[in-house]
Amino acid sequence: MQDHTSPSSLENAIALQKHGVGQPVRRKEDDTLVRGKGKYTDDFNLPGQAYAWIVRSPHAHGIIKSIDTAAARAMPGVLGVWTGKDLAAANYNPFTCGLPLKNRDGSPLLQTNRTALMSDKVRFVGDPVAFVVAETLAQARDAAEAVELDIEPLPAVTNAAEAAKPGAPQLYDHIPNNVALDYHYGDTAKIDAAFAGAAHVTKLDIVNNRIAVVPMEPRVALAHYDKKAERYTLQVPTQGVSGNKVTLAKILNVPNDKVRILTANVGGSFGMKNVNYPEYTCILHAAKMLGRPVKWTDERSTSFLSDSHGRSQLIHAELALDAEGKFLAVRLSGYGNLGAYITGVAPAPLSLNTGKNLASVYRTPLLGVDIKTVLTNTTLMGAYRGAGRPEANYYMERLIDRAADEMGINRLTLRKRNFIKPAQLPFPASSGVTYDSGDFQAVFNKALEISDHANFAKRKKDSRKQGKLRGIAVGCYLEVTAPPAGELGKITFEPDGTVKLTTGTLDYGQGHATPFAQVLSAQLGVPFEKITLEQNDSDLVRFGNGTGGSRSITATGSAIVESSALVVAKGKQAAAYLMEAAEGDIEFADGRFTIAGTDRSIGIMELAQRMREGKMPEGAPTSLDVDHATKDTPSTFPNGCHVAEVEIDPETGVVRIVRYTGVSDFGTIVNPMIVEGQLHGGVAQGIGQALMEQVSYDASGQPITGSFMDYALPRAEDVPMMAVGDHPSPAKSNPLGTKGCGEAGCAGSLVCIVNAVIDALSEYGVTQIDMPLTPERVWRAVRDGKKKAA
Q: pTM higher than 0.85 for the full model?
């Protein structure tokens, strides 16, 4: 039986090649988003909805004496005012950190057990203490200003190192010296011995500056409660609906099936929107109490206060080398700033992830990490693009450049002497993970070639003629991606002729619809344009771990491959029945089931339709649909080398990135166009942190950077055109060979930009300068260098 309604095998093969794995297919959603047709959470409204406004603490630290809501309740349009005492009666659970992190003595991480509204004490400026719901947003906001707070101020501490000292202001009675986690990794005795016997030891004190996430779309949520079903629904931007549903149900103290999360388009997250915040509990409570929907929309000024921040470490780094420059050991000690509360995954980027990524692409036999994660009177900390990976690579590469200068070894040569060689793979790194693939020297060589590193001296001479300083630096990196824990890959052949793929990851800017469709089309021969993606409704996404840690293409890609194999198995069984052949004689290729040695075949799309319409024999499948979840798979190890070239005006301190190159090993690349876009975005965020971004507080804990008047973000003119290349070594740990790419831009850019600036300033004796490298900081470094030279 030939299927004459479908394309021929040749036509189908050509179509598959056009949209196949490795092709730069344009993103499916671009036409919608670029034309402003996307639907974000604030675009959703429900009949009869009310509006919420959060009352926040103006003090960084203090005891709540009283909260007077009488005046607010009496104002026009006000439907309700709630405080922490009101919510306590609802028996909600506190926000906790679920990571199984241990202190050096084996005891578990100390929890802060945050409640949605504070009733005893406030611990940072912006801490929610009450909220108002009214008929209109203006009425809610006016009434919130009428809430009278009586807070007795206490001394505040914002620096993690200061907070850990005896006598510092204590945020919690049960957390001595504000240290929630005293993290330790490594064999201290062996590491100490390596340093004692080293020919050279390089030491650096490094500040990793605190960053505000500032996504395009601020947080927003729309809450609804179905009294009859006793069920909560929350429309909210997330990084994955299934996992967030489970967490929210735990907080609300209800079974998982009593919570539904919906997520539409998401305007950026970078880790920040993947946790449940107090505002969500508040409006869900109000929706239940009032019997009507309640909406809350954040504003940029309060986003700076209430959204989780990223980075913020004070690190002492050391590298031990032998006389030839071979690495013997590397160790970090210092502090990570948790902010006032621990939620989500906050301690991991500051400790565990930093350690896992520190060894990078080098043969470093011993590794030690001793970091105290400390509570301070500042906004809570969370994951931010890379979540410990860019930080670790930054420390390692800063150490290498400094060690090379101190030992009189060329910086490139020192790296070459320590690269892990392809013949040494799989390589058990001192971080406790095993690298399965990679050719780090080849990636490095290609980056030098594309960047024209060999002719830098001429360009530096030309800059000098213009009165400018010029510097260059490389930044190698390797990331240990988040382990792709079991992932959903549900495939449904719809009656309208489309094929719906349901996954537990979620697209908040990555462009999932296109590469996922490319993978599915390559596996099953399903027409690319017929594939749709479902990720946004926790009622439909029964399982999944969301998007984060550069895991999506590996996790979902593996799920698609496994699920497709199940579809093919069902299809062979059904095709054998329909074509009256033995199942063992059925072959599958290019979207067609064929009886071996004949021209009799049927396309997968027609087969799915006939299975829906006809009667299948007992025991035979009645559809090609598959609802499958994968088992856990290992982390992957994307890596690369970036080269930055900067030009500095010594009279003003202004830094310009004049050349930028990024060469990557992302394993199998499903869609190079999307990968390049991801790389550009990550580099832009790296430029922001390296040159201009920093959240600051004064001595009393008041935020100084509370708006874009005080907090600088890179603009188009700050981001250079980038030369990109790739040298892939497919991963051996997953069927596609993918490695992930979303965080690589940050991991590679931070250090090559900073090291390039230091290279340019080296003629003034500058060997260390901390991010952000603002014009003032650079100008002062030049001035101080000139004074010392004089």
A: yes
